[in-house]
Amino acid sequence: MTQIDPQFTERCIEALLFAAAEPLSDVDLAKRLPYGADIQAGIAALRARYEGRGIELVCVANRWRFQTATDLAFLMTEEREEPRRLSKAAQETLAIIAYHQPVTRAEIEAVRGVQASRGTIDVLLELGLVRMRGRRRSPGRPVTLGTTDAFLEHYGLATLSDLPGITEMKAAGLLEMNLPPGFSVPDPLGLRSGEDEDPLEDGDEAPEFAQDFLGELEKG
């Protein structure tokens, strides 16, 4: 039986594990290495060589692989903020709130011509683009909705008076669908003052579509 140079065996194992897409077992290594190579000795030598280094040789489910040293795992963590794309219904609802605020859920439904999904307004509340402003001084005292400073920051607006017209909104991606029947874009300078609403009080019950979201905030 031909004696294989131990250092050559070690280098071969190192190369195979480095290039492998998944951990390799002793059998996998034996299929690649020359007959007579001492795999166990090569593994032991590699483990000793990489001990205390940034990369270490470890056994996972009877298979071998190189991995980042456990105490350096924090260096591999990457935090990225994934932008959350609004659905067409959410964009449309947000546009209505922005141009007609303060506006109630019923008024949103009247403008869109369809029933407002509780999930759609929940998403806008969760993202901080919309807030509950107060209660309308009308039967049932419905809660009114308006935009937030985060809305202005997100769309690069200094004030609500800088809201774009329909053409600009479509170009900016704020409104990517055809306007629903009855939708109009009022003059941003002519937005309601809110004099026909009262501020929310601690004892006020949140509307049904917002209760789940507010409950999560309380848990946090």
TrEMBL record:
The record's listing under Gene3D superfamilies reads: Winged helix-like DNA-binding domain superfamily/Winged helix DNA-binding domain
Recorded coiled-coil stretches = none
Q: Does the keyword Iron apply?
A: no
Q: Annotated region Disordered: where?
A: 185-220
> GO terms for biological process?
cell division; chromosome separation
Stretches of Acidic residues bias are at 195-207
Q: Which UniProt keywords apply?
A: Cell cycle, Cell division, Chromosome partition, Cytoplasm
* InterPro entries referenced in this protein's UniProt entry, alphabetically: ScpB_csome_segregation (IPR005234), WH-like_DNA-bd_sf (IPR036388), WH_DNA-bd_sf (IPR036390)
Q: Does the keyword Transport apply?
A: no
Q: What is this protein called?
A: Segregation and condensation protein B
Q: Which organism is it from?
A: Caulobacter henricii
